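Quick question, first post here. What does this chain look like in 3D?
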Amino acid sequence: MTSKRYFFSPWCLFVLFFGFVFWKLFEYHCFPDPRVLTQSQRQYWSNIPVRANRGFIQDSRGNILALSLPVSSFFIDPEHWSPSDAPALKELIPNSTYEKISGPLSGRFVWLMRRADPQVARKILSLDLKGVYEIKEKKREYPNGPLMAHVLGFCDIDDNGQAGLELAWDSILYDPPGYRVLVRQAGGRVPDVGHGRDAYGSGISRITLTIDVRIQYVVEKYLNETALEHGAKWGAAICMDPGTGALLAMASWPFFNPNNREELGNAKALLNNAVGRAYEPGSTFKPIFMGIALEEGLVRVSEKFTCPARLRVADGFVTEASSQAMGQLTAAEILMKSSNVGMAQIGIRSRPFDMYRTLLDWGFAKVSDVELRGTEKGLLASPEQWRGVIPANISFGQGLAVTPLQLITAMAPVVNGGRLMSPWLIQEVVESAGDVIYKGRPQLVREVLTPETAEWLRAVMRDIVLSGTGRQASSPVTAIAAKTGTAQVAEKGKYVQGRYVSSFVGFWPYEAPQYLMLLLIGEPTGGKYYGGEIAAPMFKKIVEDMADLEIFKTDRGRAQRGRETT
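> Answer (accepted):
Ran it through. Tokens below.
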């Protein structure tokens, strides 16, 4: 029997060897070691967080007030960067950045400049430096600069809202953050920049305000002019639709420019005095207290009061601002001549607990529900503390602190027939998907005055402008009704000599009120300090400029004739 022979071919070794090599290549490429994968990712690509398009804010007429624009940012890859190139950038970047990039850098990503100005960006790109790369980002821009800055607020370098509407509606104005993928190419010259998840949303959110930028511009123009003329420390102004509570303008002085980041470090300038400052309202509070007194039967419109220059009340004294006796005054004349002594005699008739609850019902000592943050609630002592002269002081606006927004909101019932309306700032909010998620509307809080009482108060306020302390606000353009105010400033429980808040609150046209406005000049230093001589002329100028812009209808022929006569 013949046996078979088996031979081992060398080709078998060749097949086994290359089979093993191909298997290892497949294993390393498809199932890499996690440590190797992590190291390679660090070397060749990086995730850079970016914000989506931040939504824009517009006024009631569709004028853009805040938007995001495309800008260039720059970073350095230390792997390809030479510190010897730093001098070429010295005039374009901050000194701290220059010092940093002039020495050794670690890692693969170092910010050179965020959101560069277009001119600076072009200069950096023209240098064509190795290791310097560009990233397209978005920069928050406020086209009108300081106009309405306290209402709009501002964002930080990463587009996070920091104040105003930008903060209050931050979660709506931007979509969730995404990232960009930076791929490091072998030559290191130009990275391939791709978009990561949610880098840009499918749409842009939008907030529409009740504010009219035309009214805002006029109000800020004269607020700034008057504050500077009289050397004021602060100022505020609010214009409202008294029938609905919609805010048509809101300003705070001193101003700041949200486009200039260097100005954002001044905390005093960033305070929105219209909602965040509590002050003693003085005589502008008198029509409100008089309305409450009439409703509660504490006074009759036909009643007369004897008003000496100085009146002792319990443990204190009440004096007239003019230090002169005013004789016999009716309730209307008390308001027209702004008599502290007359108001004090009405105030001491009030019952502390009842008056305290009534003032709360009018919105004092409460945080307003306006769609902003940073609103203060003011100060109103508990009724247990209403002893001695305190009830008398409160009747003419001393001994309590309010915000400008609270005061103008409480004045609206006098103008609209007795309805306390909630103030509102936003017409509509639309998210990036296009859905309307908030719609502002007039909200009645409660009826606080009868129409008859409101009508009587309006007539008295008209007389104040015609023949009382508000004569400097009288204008041929339209019939104005108003109340002046001059309040002392208290510090550590005592009134400081020479420190006052000058104010003026009024509405127009008198027969069919469309606008209600409050103006305040805080602590003027130019010698004048009465509301009737500082704030009243400013009020007149604002109304007449609004007429010139045809914001409201008026008899322009009569206005022109009146100006020629003047």
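Residues 213-425+444-565 form a domain with the Beta-lactamase fold (CATH 3.40.710.10).
The longest helix spans residues 10-30.
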